[in-house]
Specification:
The chain is mainly α. Helix content is 41%, strand content 10%. The two termini are 19 Å apart.
């Protein structure tokens, strides 16, 4: 999350932006923040990369 603020000025607020983390909780917080500062198309990967690996891509390693 710390790297986001360092690089936030490099992101285009009008582009679709997908925010991910391990379980989707921290990414939800970041998505809400992005929404509050004017990002127009934010998507949070609900359940995080863990849910993606279990439900979408079972070839991914779980950790």
């Amino acid at each position: 999350m710390g790297q986001i603020m360092v690089n936030i000025d490099t992101l285009d607020k009008s582009q679709e932006t997908v925010i991910i983390c391990h379980h989707g909780i921290r990414s939800m917080q970041v998505a809400r923040y992005f929404d509050s500062i004017g990002f127009e198309n934010i998507i949070n990967l609900r359940g995080g990369i863990d849910a993606w690996a279990k439900q979408v891509d079972s070839s991914m390693a779980l950790y």
